[in-house]
Amino acid sequence: MTPSSGSFMGHATSEDGIQWEKPLLGLVEFEGARDNNVCRLEPFGRPLKALHVVDDSRQRPPERRFEAVGVNSYHEDGATYGGWGGIAYSADGATWHHVEGGTREGAGGGNPSCVWDENLGRYAMFHRQIIERAMPHRYATSIGRYIVRQESEDLVEWSPRKTVFNPMDPKWPEVESMMVFRHEGIYFGFPQMLENEIRGEVEIHLVTSRDGYRWEHPFPDEAFVPRGPRGDFDDMITWFGLMVVHDDQTKIYYGGARYPHSKPIAGEPGPSSLAGGRRQNAIGLATVPRDRLIGLRADEPWGAFLTRPFVVEGDELYVNANVDRELRIEVVDPVGRFVDIGGKSHIGHYIAGEEQRFPGFELDDCQVVAGDSLRHRVQWSGGTIGRFKGQAVRLRFVARMATVYAFWME
Question: What's the pTM?
């Protein structure tokens, strides 16, 4: 697309997520021809300029296979409707149908990421908010960016905005946007950390949350999708990471660029912000083994952690782990028992708590787990985890030279 035409949404398909084809859809006219892959937005009959597909795996009617937020809409004269993020649905991802409702994108709102939260029974949307800084003469830019959240039952009516992620880190003082996903009941976020005063760099980090409000940023000094070495297509910016879990691999498609997000300081060397009169972006792919976005590491001599109480719902316990030496697991009663240790003061007896383990399911009863596997099967001399089906338990993991990523039951 030429710079004067703006940017449009294109349609591409792939069998393996590596090799992509751009079909000639013939849906809209561009530069006098319809031989293009530009998506169409109804009822306007015009090109689709922006959208963000909702992460929702529930079954829906075929005509609403895909749903999206942040969709542009048009005035009768063909001009785009500014300051509003609309809603649309599609059967094939190529022709989209605009519906009433949406969110106001004033005050810098935009770049939304929307997921369905099955625990709440509502949609949760995360998007950028911009504030004006006091004393703008002290900064290269007079604005600051952070992430807010809104909720909706129908994608039409939305709750007020609430700030959920604004780390204000000295190295990365702003969050340009944040793409959010729910996987196995947990929120994962890819915040695009931005330094806009001097370097103009953006890089994707990793954050997690149980509820989508309180976020953990375990590695604030480490990029999850780092920028490439100088000269690569992504040596200044990595952003808009989109996660796809397929078979035993997690694919992260992201945008990469060589230009600085802000204008470079005069006299400083660096890649030009424009190439051929327009900003150039490319799509990159990062991969990690399934469920290995983050893990707990135990080095020498030992490391251990105790899970929260949970109800056993399966017959077999599996662990995703890379174990160089050994890993053992024991089953622990989540309540334990209280013991009167004797003695008496003016306020009563001295009581102590005592942890209870289960014979046949202690550390020494566990078959040693070793090696690198996405699904180690865990067994004890007393049997399998199915022995406690329907009961609440805790698990203690004790490891040496091992990284534990996930566990589950089947």
Answer: 0.86
